[in-house]
Write a structure and sequence with these properties.
It is a single chain. The chain is mainly alpha-helical. It has one domain. It has five helices and no strands. It is globular. 11% of the residues are buried. The model has no long low-confidence stretch (mean pLDDT 86).
Length: 123
């Protein structure tokens, strides 16, 4: 039993390193890996997985943002306007998530992933 728990912790750390790398290297996108991981590996419901992914991604995003702020020339206008939109959109999305079923959320998430993948592959 202890061996299995240690194996799960080790796997979680390795997966966390990979997800952190993806987020840091691409400037985002780690959530697209975290949510399926949480639903399959940890057996969380879709809504719980998405909420957990946001909490998991927060420290990664803060660390990445600090590095980007000091190493890349950023437009303050673009930064602040986008941050405002993301904050407002995230707040609205979080409130809407409460009223949606897990199945509906899973379908929407899958659709968004497919559209994002198609855009990257073909456009």
């Amino acid at each position: 039993m202890v061996m299995q728990k240690n194996k799960n912790i080790f796997l979680s750390v390795i997966l966390g390193l990979i997800i952190g790398f993806i987020n840091g290297f691409f400037g985002g996108g780690g959530g697209m890996v975290v949510v399926p991981l949480l639903t399959k590996h940890y057996k969380l419901e879709q809504k719980e997985a998405q909420a957990t992914a946001i909490a998991v991604m927060l420290p990664i995003c803060i660390a990445s943002a600090i590095i980007y702020l000091f190493s890349v020339k950023l437009s303050l206008y673009n930064l602040l306007s986008c941050a405002g939109g993301v904050t407002l959109g995230g707040t609205v999305g979080a409130f809407l998530l409460k009223g949606a079923s897990n199945k509906t959320v899973a379908y929407i998430f899958a659709f968004v992933m497919l559209v994002a993948g198609a855009k990257l592959a073909f456009f």
